[in-house]
Amino acid sequence: MFIQTEETPNPATLKFLPGRAVMGEGTADFARAEGAERSPLASRLFGVDGVRRVFLGNDFVTVTKADEKDWALLKPALLGVIMEHFTTNQPVMLGEGESAPAATDEDDDEIVIQIKELLETRVRPAVAQDGGDIVFHSFEDGVVYLHMQGSCSGCPSSTATLKMGIENMLRHYVPEVLEVRPV
């Protein structure tokens, strides 16, 4: 098994590509070891000293490290955990994924439907390439609230991504959108 790694815009986060499906559907974001019990893979990754966050995507795993830790020391241990996990055919999750794509709810109005469609077709695929995810939270008084996950969470460039990229695109296509903010 060969696992590729990619840097992300967040210097504290590294993206691991095991060459096979990780989640299949949905994503799972673990901000700490407590709560990661439902994912044997995330639990094992948190067992490596210096791991601060684990995000599981469709075909990738992103790991965020503590600031004082060095990737040169962490990366081999993380590669070993991921390789052993997949070669022994253990489940990634013991239940369902945490968040499915921002599906349209019957109660959504036309503006929210447009916002969710733009996020699903234009934003989420681009953000997934950087090892993260953005999930629609709400739309209130012209403000779109988004939940940032994976490498996007805590990323130094996430504010620029929200303001310059996502906000400008949404304002262009949906004039009712005045601003985008993280949750």
Question: Which structural class do the helices and strands define?
Answer: alpha+beta
Radius of gyration: 17 Å
Morphology: elongated
Distance between the termini: 38 Å
Describe it for me?
The chain is α+β, with helices and mostly antiparallel strands. It is built from 4 helices and 8 strands. It has helices at residues 40-46, 71-87, 110-129, 158-173; strands at 4-7, 13-17, 28-30, 51-56, 61-65, 132-140, 143-150, 179-182. A 5-stranded antiparallel β-sheet has the order 1-2-5-4-3, with helices on one face. A 3-stranded mixed β-sheet has the order 6-7-8. β6 and β7 (143-150) form a beta hairpin.
Brief account:
The chain is α+β, with helices and mostly antiparallel strands and 183 residues long. It has four helices and eight strands.
